[in-house]
Backbone:
């Protein structure tokens, strides 16, 4: 009993999980984006949404730009983790069609998580059109994705111009993402369209 | 001289061109959207950008929603006029592939005008996800476009599922529009991809 009281009386240095705090701030940022768009994002508004002081937000992020950069990292990491999990379920090495499909379905807003992410990725496109660093990161990421898809399409050997087929496939996925967000399509239609385009580019799905 | 003086002395009711005034306000709205995004749009900011009083803006538009609705009309009318001009250059009735292509190139941001429009259309998608009336209009417009493209694809008779091919084609065009806006593609690449997809759906372009 005495020991227990002592333990509670001594102020223990609080273990602050910095990563957790950053994620808390990033989650607040997404809520601000979701209700007011990217233009509503400011250190002040995000602090209010996270229920912490603006000084604490500034301790982690020096500027709006840094905060948006971290939010982009977060989205990329989440997409990357889900993609890796999908790839782990495929034979090694993964068949080209399945490897590409595993990525593209991660960027389609087929559930609440991916819907938030897709909304934010379109906001990043809009932000990138105006601002410098975010746009550069978007372009680098897109170039890497295009290189990967082109290599996979080339490996499958079903079309004469893998680069063009890759550009088309990524455009289909992002167009479907926009149409899902806008409510012009449902999830089933979007997946059917994506699979049909994958069939054109890789040949029909051989099945499991 | 006396007559001239008289004419100038008598206050002549000013001929206000209401359409011109509305367009002036709409142009100011686009400048506000271009610099601060849709979330920056308010009657006050648009009045400031147009260099007119907020009372005058309110004379033409009772609410932000009405103003956005008018701005959507404007974009639709401009796209429609350019499409009609393209169709007028085609044989009557226009060949299905050419009729669809004539529309889809109007929504690709291939020049400054269409870039502003594409940026605003993506902003309307984002706005429509949150708000009611704008989203309904976007969905109605998309359903009409899909119906038109499906009919043209069906008339060409080159694919077994015209509805699916139409959804894909519109997704390709909107995906390319996003990628052009983001600077991932140049105009030449985008048009090549669109034409390749049109070839898949309609069969190769027979040429002029």
Residues:
């Amino acid at each position: 009993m005495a020991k227990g009281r002592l333990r509670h009386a001594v102020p223990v240095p609080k273990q602050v999980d910095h990563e957790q705090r950053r994620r808390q701030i990033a989650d607040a940022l997404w809520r601000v984006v979701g209700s007011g768009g990217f233009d509503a994002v400011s250190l002040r508004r995000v602090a209010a949404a996270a229920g912490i002081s603006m000084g604490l937000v500034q301790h982690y992020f020096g500027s709006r730009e840094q905060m948006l950069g971290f939010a982009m990292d977060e989205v990329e990491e989440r997409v990357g983790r889900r993609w890796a999990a999908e790839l782990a379920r495929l034979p090694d090495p993964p068949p080209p069609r399945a490897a590409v499909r595993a990525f593209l379905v991660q960027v389609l807003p087929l559930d609440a998580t991916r819907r938030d992410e897709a909304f934010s990725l379109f906001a990043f496109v809009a932000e990138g059109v105006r601002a410098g660093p975010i746009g550069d990161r978007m372009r680098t990421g897109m170039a890497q994705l295009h290189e990967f898809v082109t290599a996979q399409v080339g490996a499958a050997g079903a079309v004469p111009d893998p680069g063009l087929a890759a550009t088309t496939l990524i455009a289909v996925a992002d167009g479907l993402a926009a149409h899902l967000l806008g409510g012009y399509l449902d999830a089933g239609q979007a997946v059917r369209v994506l699979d049909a385009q994958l069939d054109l580019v890789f040949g029909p799905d051989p099945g499991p």
